[in-house]
Amino acid sequence: MPVTQTLDADVLRRQDPELADVLLGELTRQSTTLQLSAAENFTSRAVLTALGSPLANKYAEGYPGARHHGGCEIADVAERLAVDRATALFGAEHANVQSHSGSSAVLAAYAALLRPGDTVLALGLPYGGHLTHGSPSNFSGRWFDFIGYGVDTESGLIDYDQLRVLARTHRPKAIVCGSICYPRHIDYALFREVADEVGAYLIADAAHPIGLVAGGAAPNPVPYADVVCATTHKVLRGPRGGMILCGSELAQRVDRAVFPFTQGGAQMHTIAAKAVAFGEAATPAFAEYAQRVVVNARVLAEALAAEGLSITTGGTDTHLLVADPAPLGVDGRTARGRLNAAGLVLDTCALPHGDRGLRLGTAALTTQGMGETEMARIAVLLAGVLRDGPAAQQARQEVQELAEGFPPYPD
Ligand SMILES: *Cc1c(COP(=O)(O)O)cnc(C)c1O
Question: Does the pLDDT value for residue 1 go beyond 60?
């Protein structure tokens, strides 16, 4: 069977042992360290199989039934499946599943709704806004006039009063809600109300919580936002990529903003893998998974607080939490370095008062089958490394033993 041969790791090993070793090295790294990054997860083998399938060879510019290339009959079936599953999963009238990444999805959403020079209101970058929310080093900051709302420096919660005042003052064309490190549910109804008051579009960048939405563990932005942008590779556990959800009245503008305005040929293997992931996310098992992710994050937050770290907003509603290691006498960047050396892989992020903190997530650990006992253990290991730098070597051993007890890809 030629198809199974293309999926065979032995083929790569024989042809290119050097690269095969690199891939094996990464699998080993992922299996012997703990992935506490809030943005990562382990896809299923079914998703990996779709990614490694011959659909990777197919050029398919355009949309199902209206392609610029021949031979797209099968590709069309794959994309229609992905679209139908996405609209059903999130209760959306329309889904575009071609965005190559979360950033590409946001770019297309802006292209669909805005003109260069328009004013946009988004969470400021120092408070957890994404690069695409107005960074001067990103197209967004260069082409639009971004105004940043913030979070309350004490509570860490979105300052909805400030949002309303800024919206009334600046009359933005669009308001963006969504963050790379906000641990609480977002009040989409309130954002909608503010957007309506000033006649702005509401764009929800739900890159992080969309997987929880799929599992019923976080509020759905679809009924409130004009356009919802998302990634498919975070909690949602699909392939690396993006997606846009909207109502039928904006469907054509969104589709044209993706292709031909900002992208060329669709990545059909990724779209097939998205279809697989949407199928998985519609199961009761995934809903259970999403609930466990949130419980694990709460338990981890409580255990870290008990170890003396300061937890932004006092906890979490989601898969992620933000911890300030300062009470243990170490800043965020130093902390990340020490923790990475101990096999506790995570990211830094902005803290409400300006310093760098640690961003932790439980999506990957939960996929591996870890639960509350392991969260408590990880909190103790993590705090131990931060209190006593030289302990990192000993901790590395314990982290590896813990990780190897929960292999992400058992065989
Ligand atoms: C992850 C993320 C993105 C970007 O996703 P990429 O696939 O890395 O481009 C955009 N917005 C938010 C809020 C994110 O968290």
Answer: no
